[in-house]
Specification:
Strand content: 15-25%
Largest sheet: 6 strands, antiparallel
Distance between the termini: 125 Å
Radius of gyration: 39 Å
Structural class: alpha+beta
Helix content: 40-55%
Number of strands: 15
Number of helices: 20
Oligomer: single chain
Length: 627
């Protein structure tokens, strides 16, 4: 482990390296994010326009495509489902899925993730991850989601993979007060945090909170920096050479390792003497103990530049980062940072600037037409102040003796008016923002003639077809969500004890629940139905399956898929109806059983009558012979 001085030096070196690389991107991302909020003009341009007496118009046409993507994602966001691979335990996967529903709901997972996606649409990249919240469960903690905007973190400039498997380090910053720092770090003595000096200032993350360097002396704020870096550690594993299954035994005590080595030697002896003992050598496990270098992610937490913690992240995630990037557009082959990662705003920023500039010219032309003056022959107007009247019903008096041209001695000046071609160009720019975002009016549910009264199914098909041009964005979002699903699973296995799991699920966790390799070998993470629109689609699919008699879908499953108020009342009514029908059916079955008994008795009686007659005939014949 490095000393405090060495880790601070390494942290500073990596910060400068990342800052120098990402500075052009951060500068452009700030411009695009401001433009998305309706702030297109620079400060110098605003001052120049105001000096000329012109109002800097800000017409935000970027927000429409941004809100389209945001709204579509909110209507179609998926749920994380843990599905078992073939032959694995379905019950364990179902428990993880149910617990995942609970965590994403209680930890504000979906609102946080969707807000992070909105940030990525504007700037190009954001982070969404998980952390432990000790405010309620101060022993084990609860999983809580967080997001980070582009200006509060730096990633290794060489990273290209969205799972950050090739990212050597990551640096994040938060500005918190001392009380919140104690809440974030309950494993640190509170007195050490109280002893931190106030008024700390540095030159890091200037675009995150520029006021921090100026006003920090007067505020109870401290810099909470997290420095993640990849390191290698030697670990000892017990490896099954046939199945490639392995288990980390580094932390076992010496006695348990000694027992394992003894067992491995015993297996070797059995394989060697298999022919003598009459057993199949292939049935004997082939196990080895190996020591290898494994990659881990080490976390260093610094408060006001002082290292307060070094070790694994408190979520228990130590082989990757506890967050995932959400990236809009990324071109790994481009080394220029400002062009390597971009958001939707970057595609529309120029169009919005041109739109505002042209609109200001139109307004200037209209103002010049409205505020035109007069030309008059000197002396023809008794009081020139009459020419400066404003409003309606202007009265201008002419002196007949000094007006040789009569009424034409005073003529009103008229401006040229707004150029129709300029107005038509504004419409082109307005539609261009949708075109640059690979969105058209059909994607928004409007047909070619501008009619919004179209079939709902047709609108859905058009939206789905229109989004094919942006499928890469949606794929990146889904990949990031799947990565978060894997992180949640690891954190659950570390912090959610059996009693806590049982309290949430109302059942005990299975034996495989705490298998660290469950995600790798026994489960696959995929998306499931979550949003209201998807639930509605799921409901209609169930109804269609029932109607077409493809699958005999239970009535309870169809009712369960309904999205309506008073669903519990409906379920109670259905349960009562089922109870009445069950009683009626039981009575009918009892009546049918009684009828069957009567029929059987009648049948036996009718079958017995011929036998009785036959026996009587035989008896008569025997009596005859006897006589």
């Amino acid at each position: 482990m490095l000393t405090d001085y060495e880790i601070r030096s390494e942290f500073l070196e990596n910060y400068r390296y990342a800052h120098d690389f990402w500075a052009p991107f951060n500068k452009d991302a700030q411009v695009y994010t401001l433009a998305a909020s309706g702030y297109t003009w620079s400060d110098d341009e605003r001052k120049a326009l105001i000096k000329e007496g012109r109002e800097p118009l800000e017409l935000n046409i970027i927000r429409r495509p941004l809100q389209f993507f945001s709204g579509y994602l909110r209507d179609n966001i998926n749920e994380i489902v843990y599905a078992p691979v073939e032959g694995s335990d379905q019950k364990t996967a179902d428990q993880f899925t149910k617990l995942g529903y609970y965590i994403w709901d209680k930890g504000l997972g979906f609102p946080t993730f969707l807000d992070a996606c909105d940030e990525a649409f504007k700037s190009g990249i954001s982070l969404c991850g998980i952390q432990m919240d000790y405010s309620k469960d101060f022993i084990n903690g609860d999983i809580k989601f967080f997001k980070r905007t582009y200006n509060s973190f730096y990633l290794d400039p060489t990273f290209e993979s969205i799972d950050l498997s090739d990212c050597a380090f990551a640096i994040t910053r938060d500005l918190v007060d001392k009380q919140y720092a104690k809440q974030l770090m309950p494993f640190i003595d509170a007195r050490e945090i109280d002893d931190l000096s106030m008024g700390y200032r540095d030159d890091k993350f200037q675009q995150y909170h520029p006021e921090f360097t100026t006003f920090s002396r007067n505020r109870n704020l401290i810099a909470y920096d997290q420095y993640y870096k990849r390191v290698t550690r030697k670990r000892t594993f017990l490896v099954d050479m046939k199945s490639a299954f392995y288990r980390d035994i580094t932390d076992l005590d010496a006695e348990e390792k000694k027992k394992l080595k003894f067992g491995i030697r015993r297996f070797e002896e059995l394989r060697r003497d298999a022919d003598i003992l009459g057993i199949d050598a292939n049935d004997i496990p082939e196990v080895e103990i190996r020591t290898v270098d494994r990659t881990f992610v080490e976390l260093n937490i610094m408060l006001n530049g002082q290292r307060m913690y070094c070790g694994d992240d408190k979520t228990g995630i130590n082989q990757t980062y506890p967050f995932a990037p959400i990236i809009c557009y990324m071109e790994p082959s481009i080394w220029m940072p400002s062009q390597r990662i971009q958001g939707i705003s970057a595609c529309n920023w120029s169009a919005q600037r041109q739109f505002n500039k042209r609109h200001m010219k139109i307004v200037d032309m209209m103002d010049s037409d409205i505020s035109t003056g007069f030309k008059y022959m000197i002396g023809s107007v008794a009081d020139p102040q009459d020419l400066q009247q404003s409003g309606q019903n202007k009265i201008i008096g002419l002196d007949p003796e000094h007006s040789p041209a009569g009424m034409d001695s005073v003529q009103q000046l008229s401006g040229g008016g707004a150029n129709p071609a300029l107005i038509a160009y504004q419409e082109v720019l307005d539609k261009l923002t949708l075109t640059l975002s690979n969105v058209n009016e059909s994607s928004m549910g409007i047909d070619e003639k501008g009619n919004t009264q179209v079939s709902g199914r047709l609108a859905e098909v058009r939206i789905a077809q229109g989004l094919r041009g942006n499928r890469k964005i949606m794929d990146n979002v889904e990949t990031s969500q799947q990565i978060l699903g894997g992180l949640v699973l690891q954190a659950v296995q570390t912090h959610y004890k059996p009693g806590k799991v049982e309290r949430i699920l109302a059942e005990r966790p299975t034996e495989q629940f705490y298998e660290k390799e469950f995600e790798q070998y026994d489960a696959v993470i995929k998306e499931g139905v979550r949003s209201k629109s998807q639930k509605d689609a799921y409901y209609y699919e169930l109804v269609n399956l029932k109607r077409e008699q493809i699958v005999d879908v239970p009535q309870a499953e169809i009712v369960k898929a309904l999205s309506m108020a008073g669903l519990s009342d409906l379920e109670e009514a259905i349960a009562k109806q089922d109870e009445i029908l069950a009683k009626k059916s039981a009575q009918e079955d009892e009546f049918k059983a009684m009828q069957m008994q009567v029929l059987n008795a009648t049948k036996e009686e009718k079958l017995g009558l011929p036998k009785e007659r036959d026996s009587r005939v035989i008896s008569n014949l025997a009596l005859k012979d006897e006589r």
